[in-house]
TrEMBL record:
InterPro entries: AFP_Neu5c_C_sf, Aldolase_TIM, PseI-like, PseI/NeuA/B-like_N, Pseudaminic_synth_PseI, SAF, SAF_AFP_Neu5Ac, SAF_PseI/NeuA/NeuB
Name recorded for this polypeptide: N-acetylneuraminate synthase
EC number: 2.5.1.56
Secretion signal, residue range per the UniProt entry: none
GO molecular function: N-acetylneuraminate synthase activity; N-acylneuraminate-9-phosphate synthase activity
UniProt-listed PROSITE patterns: AFP_LIKE
Amino acid sequence: MTKFGPDKRPYIVAEMSGNHNGSLDRALALVDAAADAGADAIKIQTYTADTMTVDVKHPRFQISKGHELWSEAYLYDLYERAHTPWDWHQPIFERARERGITPFSSPFDRTAVELLEKLDAELYKIASSEITDLPLIRLAASTGKPIIISTGMASVKEIAAAVEAAEGVGATDITVLSCTASYPAPPEFTNLRRIPVLAQMLERPIGLSDHTHGIGVPIASVAFGACLIEKHFTMDRADGGVDSAFSLDPAELKAMRIETERAWQALGTTHIGPTEAEKEGLRFRRSLYVVADVKAGDQVTPENVRSIRPTGGLEPDAIGLVMGRTFTADAAKGTPLSWDLI
């Protein structure tokens, strides 16, 4: 059974990525910090430089000059720096389970899936760049585990093909993530309005894999139906790291966990009218009251009848109908005005 959906608070995934900075101790500290911040899961990425690419110094293997984070870096060197060593996976998974959060990963080839199966991974995420690798999707989905598919850069046709590939090998628990695969991602290209479009098109839970700065975009996504939020996570952006510039620190992750749940709670229903929470407030709407002691036979004037709080008297709009009439009985200050009094 899926852990997330519109009937549950947003599921928070802390993406470690390469923010361990080459230290297993830091990786384990990130697990602890994610758990302390209230994350539901910690995610890593399972690859090596050799399973991702080849060590060739050619422009086609090089990130463009001027990239905000990785300008002119060669893919092999970047992946060598950022990868999570495979012998770290078990201690990371064990620490996460000890702390009560779910560990999982993005596999990038068959050997990664085989390793993760040995660790009894509970679910798999397909990274945006791998959405067209349908054999990898089929392999991960054939494990029978829930599948999360990220859609950065993908067309409608590619998204549909990826979901169909997973369904074709029996997957039923499929979640799709709206994503802008830019690092960091400009908010104006996040296009949160596509979340309900994806939900209608795929009839699947839709989440958000977000690479913008801060937590404003994830909170806003909940209003559009995002049921899972994935954000990169680090101990301290000042420590550096391949993804630290657009990662949340522990305090921000905790705030996102709290505020996305608050946003989800605020969705409520389509009901228009007083709510249970407003019951007390209804008592203090305005109505017409006697505001000075009067005797039978006195005339109703602006000095002895006004619209004040609370309710109990005639509606305020009756003021024009009562002015100039006479009281039929004595009434003390603070008496609700009723038709039998005039």
